[in-house]
């Protein structure tokens, strides 16, 4: 039985949750990061939020590795390499830790505009882009892993193999 929501269901506001903590104080035992269970090659917290799994030898789970690849294909132009931020877009490695998962999904799906005396920023909506939406949880787990310090900047050197379940979900989402 699948115990998690797709990003689109989450963005629709079916569930809500809260988690806020600073990257400086992240512990791998934190319930917002700690692996609660694995399903089809993807890892989740006890609350069903996608998370990463990095083994002692540095091997990352497939979704985190995929997230690195997808982030650098779609997001780094504005948000900088490895989610470090830029002069006009925030550091997403921090957003994955400081922002509630469902809020993160909502911003990616629907975009966001902040206009005021001290800031003027626009995040375009990616809800119709399968290159983002089919991999949104991957991007999120990659940013969460990097933001927490579990992985360093750059391409992870070792990765778990892609599971059959993950490959099937990817094909279905991309329409293959």
UniProtKB/TrEMBL annotation:
Signal recorded as keyword: yes
Gene3D superfamilies attached to this UniProt entry: Cytochrome c-like domain (1.10.760.10)
Domain called Cytochrome c: residue spans: 43-147
GO MF, one annotated term: heme binding
Taxonomy, superkingdom: Bacteria
Extent of the signal sequence: 1-22
Matching NCBIfam families: 4cys_cytochr
Protein's UniProt name: C-type cytochrome, methanol metabolism-related
């Amino acid at each position: 039985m699948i115990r998690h929501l797709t990003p689109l269901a989450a963005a629709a506001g079916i569930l809500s949750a809260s988690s806020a903590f600073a990257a400086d104080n992240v512990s791998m035992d934190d319930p917002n990061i700690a692996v609660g269970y694995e399903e089809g090659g993807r890892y989740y917290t006890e609350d069903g939020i996608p998370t990463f799994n990095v083994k002692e030898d540095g091997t990352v789970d497939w979704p985190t590795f995929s997230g690195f690849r997808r982030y650098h294909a779609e997001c780094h132009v504005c948000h900088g390499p490895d989610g470090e931020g830029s002069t006009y877009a925030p550091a997403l490695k921090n957003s994955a830790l400081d922002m509630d998962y469902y809020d993160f999904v909502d911003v990616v799906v629907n975009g966001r505009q902040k206009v005021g005396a001290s800031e003027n920023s626009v995040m375009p909506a990616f809800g119709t882009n399968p290159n983002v939406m089919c991999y949104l949880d991957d991007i999120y787990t990659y940013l969460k892993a990097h933001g927490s310090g579990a992985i360093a900047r750059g391409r992870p050197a070792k990765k778990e193999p892609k599971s059959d379940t993950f490959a099937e979900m990817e094909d279905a989402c991309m329409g293959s």
